[in-house]
Structure formats: C-alpha cells, structure tokens
Design goal:
The protein is of the alpha+beta class. Helices cover 50% and strands 9% of the residues. It has helices at residues 12-21, 43-46, 66-76, 89-106, 110-113, 119-140, 153-162, 176-186, 189-197, 201-204; strands at 2-5, 26-31, 36-37, 54-56, 62-64. The chain has a five-stranded mixed sheet with strand order 3-2-1-4-5. A hairpin with a 4-residue loop joins strand 2 and strand 3 (36-37). Helix 1 packs parallel to helix 3, helix 4 (89-106) runs parallel beside helix 7 and helix 6 crosses helix 8. The longest helix has 22 residues, at 119-140.
Length: 205
Amino acid sequence: MKLYYTPGACSLAPHIVAREAGLPVILEKVDLSKHLTETGESFRAINPKGYVPAIALKDGSLLTEAAAIIQYLADQQPDAGLAPANGTMERYRLIEWLTFISSEIHKGFGPLWNPATPETVKAATKDRLASRFAYLDEILAKQPFLMGETFTIADAYLFTVVNWTNFHAIDISSFKNLSAFQARVAARPKVQEALEAEGLLKQAA
C-alpha cells in the first residue's frame, strides 16, 4: 500500500494507524500547493479530490477520506485492537467518535487555514473549537482514551487534528485532560516514529 500524505495534515492519522497496526506502507509526500507528489506525479491525476490522505491499495484502487482509511487499516490487522469488530455496538461508538472528530474538530479548523478569513470569523472559529475541546476535556477526565482504556484509531485521528493548535497558536493548556491526552498519545513509540518520519517532533512536543 502507498499512503499519499502531507506532513502534519490529516494524513498523519492513517500514517499513525498503519504503524500501530504493523502494516507496511510506502509513503509518498504531496506538495498540496503545487499538486505534485515527491516523485513528480500530478496528484490530481491520482486523486481528483486534490487533497490527502489517499491510499493506493494492492488491487490498484484508491481509498480516500481519513475516517474511511483508518477503519480499513484497522480491519486489515484486527489483532492490533485498534477498532472494535464490525457489527458491534462498540464499533458504532467508534464511528460516532470518528464522525464527531471529522465534522466538529477537523472541519472546525477550516476557516483558520484560509488567509483571507476575516479576523472576526477566525475568533468565532476558535471559540467554537474551544467549546468542542471543553467537551473532550470532560470525557478525557474519566478515561485515558476516547473509547476507554484502549487506544484506537479515533485517538490517532483526534491527536492529529488537535495538534493543529500548534500551527494556529491556540493554547489548550487550560484543557488539562485534553493536553494530557495529546502528550500521552505523542509519547507512544509508533506515534513517535510517524512524527519523526514527517518531521513533526518539534511541533508535537
């Protein structure tokens, strides 16, 4: 499998999951400003959506969208325990978390990436994110990970998008449980490997 990624983007989540699952994945860096891969290919020709992550599967097909990719990867190595079995209530709880992270946190950062966004909109965006962080902080006061005692793909996804606070100078130190979660996930050996491979150790520290 080949993972098309951009350092620090949401593609970090499947990168972490692949390493946690022990799945061999070839990394292909993408310059999203030029829409070129590091080998000079047109990324739009590979993925017409034009954004990462995308993963080229052994059968030649392409799978996109972070939440879909990380579930696929977890299911390739069920013994790794990164996702509950399909059809169980626990799996639907996992999907519930993935949906929340995707819609409320991941897309919640959207206006902050656009330099044309007015400052008032950026301020409102940060306020909305803070309310979501407060909710997560309450959950993580009761348990180390989103699903309880066990690290899952949802934690990899949440860690990835909350790490974007470092790119936007958002201080989350007041959310002590969320901050502790970020540090806890960052300390995992396989997460460290992924961060090092993407040159992100300084930002995640």
